[in-house]
Amino acid sequence: THFGYETVSEAEKAKRVYKVFENVAQKYDVMNDAMSLGIHRLWKDKLLHAMHPQPGARLLDVAGGTGDIAFRFLDYIRFQQDRQKRRATRSMQTPSWQDISINYSTEDDNEPRESSAVVCDINKEMLKVGKQKAESMGVSSGLSWVVGDAEELPFDDDQFDIYTIAFGIRNVTHIDQALQEALRVLKPGGRFMCLEFSKVTNPVLARLYDAYSFQMIPVLGEVIAGDWKSYQYLVESIRKFPDQEEFKHMIEDTGFYCVHYHNFTGGVVALHSGFKL
Ligand code: SAM
């Protein structure tokens, strides 16, 4: 297999990927902002909008690192809940047929299930930074952190409504194995969503992007995190990852249905989605 453009054994790749994220963990969030000029936040927000999770949903965020997707998920759900409460209050004051139908369809005799997000990552240093972030933000309810390999998830079958993996799958040694595991742990009807760097479709943008990433990212890595090599690996791993169509076929071959993708920023990043039936 490969580590960037170097050919290495599978065990060696896994070891080196671990080292990369162990080295960058403390500076990971700062570097993400610096390298993407903050745009990674917009890509992650777009993932949440496409997901549109409802109260009670159970999320598994694999390769979740410092928890960006899980925090956004819990925020989004809280917003949905507040909106539902506001609607319910309004409908008690001046009920209209729309309010009544909304309450009818969302209310249940049982207590609604609490939403939850599990952040799973192979690297405990990344999770440690995530947990510190959660503490400083005062977020704890519905959030858990689990050390685990995307290729061999430590969860039972049919557990989650949504599986996400953001900027993680290109680091996994056997992508097909990680996809199989995603399918296994999702409930029937559950959704797989993957945010990953992809192939830039516009040739002018592609040239600018190449120049920026090959020349600037390792320099930023050296200046901010004192680690040129790790960031050179990140750039090279992006180049090696399958393009949008190829990855879509891999997801379909795993057994997911209704697989489609959206390009963000001209294909710098693609969001792939599919369902387990
Ligand atoms: N999802 C986070 C985000 O978007 O900010 C973190 C992405 S970071 C670029 C990639 C993460 O993948 C790292 O935290 C790394 O430890 C994790 N990772 C790499 N190989 C993995 C594997 N086999 N299983 C689980 N996580 C893995």
Automatic annotation (TrEMBL):
Subcellular location: Mitochondrion inner membrane
E.C. number: 2.1.1.201
Pathway: Cofactor biosynthesis; ubiquinone biosynthesis
GO molecular function, one term: 2-methoxy-6-polyprenyl-1,4-benzoquinol methyltransferase activity
A GO cellular component annotation in the UniProt record: extrinsic component of mitochondrial inner membrane
Family in the record: Belongs to the class I-like SAM-binding methyltransferase superfamily. MenG/UbiE family.
Function: Methyltransferase required for the conversion of 2-polyprenyl-6-methoxy-1,4-benzoquinol (DDMQH2) to 2-polyprenyl-3-methyl-6-methoxy-1,4-benzoquinol (DMQH2).
Protein name in the entry: 2-methoxy-6-polyprenyl-1,4-benzoquinol methylase, mitochondrial
Originating species: Anabas testudineus (Climbing perch)
Gene: COQ5
